[in-house]
Amino acid sequence: MPFTANRQFKKSPRMFVAAKDMHYTTSDGRQVLDGTAGLWCVNAGHARPKIVEAIGKQAAELDYAPAFQMGHPKAFELANRIVDIAPDGLDHVLFTNSGSESVETALKVALAYHRAKGDGSRFRLIGRERGYHGVNFGGISVGGIVSNRKMFGTLLTGVDHLPHTHNLSKNAFSRGEPANGVELADELERIVTLHDASTIAAVIVEPVAGSTGVLIPPPGYLKRLREITKKHGILLIFDEVITGYGRLGTPFGADYFDVVPDIMVTAKGLTNGVIPMGAVLVSAEIHDAFMTGPEHLIEFFHGYTYSGNPIASAAGLATLETYKEEGLLTRGAELAKVWEDALHSLKGEPHVIDIRNIGLVGAIELEPIAGQPTKRAFSAFLNAFEQGYLIRTTGDIIALSPPLIISESQIGELIDAVRKALRSID
Ligand code: PXG
C-alpha cells in the first residue's frame, strides 16, 4: 500500500466502501466525515451528480482516443476552461495523469525551454527544503523530504534547495500568513551567486507547502522570489497540486498571493480526485519558444498514453462546472474566518505547539513523544477515525483540508473531534 504502515493496516484494516458529499461509509457501516477531501483532492465533495453523469456518458460516447498525433474536442475544451480560471499570462496546457507527472512535465518544459532559446547552460533546478513535489525522480530531487529521498541514490544532479519558511519559535499560533521570515527569499540570491544565474533553469515551490504540514509563507515572500527569478531570467514554477482549484479561497494560490509564475503545476482538484488527471499551465512565451522548425516535426518530445484522456477530460469539465455553479473556488474565503476561529480554539489543548491556517487548510502541530516521532499524531488519527472523522497526519502534524462544501456546523464537529482526540491520547 502507498505511504501506509502496511503491517499495522493489515492487522486492522480501515476500509471505505461508499461516499456521498461530506461523508464516507466504512465497511462496517459507519459514517465518517471527510476532513481531508480524500487526499486534498475531493474539493466539491463526493459522488457529485454532474461529474458521475459526465464520466458514464463519456465512457459510452468516446472511451479513448490516441493522445499522440490525434485529438478529441473535450481535451481542448477543458484546456480552455482551465485557462479561463487561471491567472492572466498562463494560457497553454499540457495534460498529465497525476501531480507527480505534472511536476516532471514542468521541470522538463523548463529545461527544454531554455535550450530552445539557445540558453542550454541553464540546467540547474532549485527546490526547497520540506517541499513535496510527488514521488518521481525529478520531484524527489527538487523536493525536500529526507525520507522520500534517502533510499533512492543520486537523484537528479544540478539541484539546490532554498530553506523552508517554518519557524516555530517566531511564528507559532499565527493566524494566516506568519509575520516573520520574508528575508528567507533572499537565500535565492545566495544560491544564484554560488552557481551563477546562467546555470539556473527554474525555481519550484509550493505556494503553501502542504504535505510537510501546511507551511505558510510570510507576506511578501513569494513576491520576492518572483522578483529575483525575473531579474535573473530564471523560470518560476508554482506547484499548485494542493493550492489549486479553490483550496485557499481563490482559484489558485497565485491569485491568493498575487504572484504569477511562469509555469503552474496542478492535479488533484482538477477532476475532484475522481479520475487521475493533472494539468501544467505555461505562458505563451514558453509555448511559442517551442513552435519553431519544420511543421511536420514534433516540437516537444514528451507526453503520456493517457494525456487528456477523454473520460478524465469529461470529469474535469464537469468538475469545473460544479465549482462554478456552486461558487466553490471562492467558498474557502467565505468560510476562512469560521475555519480560523475553530482551529485556533484548539490552542491550549494537550500536546498542541502550533496551529496554522490559510483558506480552508489547517494544521495542528503536536509535541512529539520523546524518541517516538509520528506516534502521537498517528494515535490522534486513529482516535478521530473511531469517532467518525477522517483527518491526515504528517510527522506529528495534523493536517485538515475538508471539501469546500463543508458547512459551518460540520467545521465545528470536525474540530471538536480533534479536541476530543487530543484529550484522549497519550
Ligand atoms: N505536488 C504537490 C504539491 C503535492 O501535494 C504532488 C505534487 C504529487 O501528486 P500525485 O498525484 O502524484 O500524488 C502532491 C501530492 C498528504 C498527501 O496527505 C499529499 C499528496 C499526496 C498524497 C497525500 O500530504 N500530495
UniProtKB/TrEMBL annotation:
Keywords: Aminotransferase, Pyridoxal phosphate, Pyruvate, Transferase. GO terms for biological process: biotin biosynthetic process. InterPro entries: Aminotrans_3, Aminotrans_3_PPA_site, PyrdxlP-dep_Trfase, PyrdxlP-dep_Trfase_major, PyrdxlP-dep_Trfase_small. Its cofactor is pyridoxal 5'-phosphate. PROSITE patterns: AA_TRANSFER_CLASS_3 (PS00600). Its EC number is 2.6.1.18. This is Omega-amino acid--pyruvate aminotransferase. Pfam families: Aminotran_3 (PF00202). One of its GO terms (molecular function) is adenosylmethionine-8-amino-7-oxononanoate transaminase activity. Belongs to the class-III pyridoxal-phosphate-dependent aminotransferase family. It comes from the Bacteria. Signal peptide: none annotated.
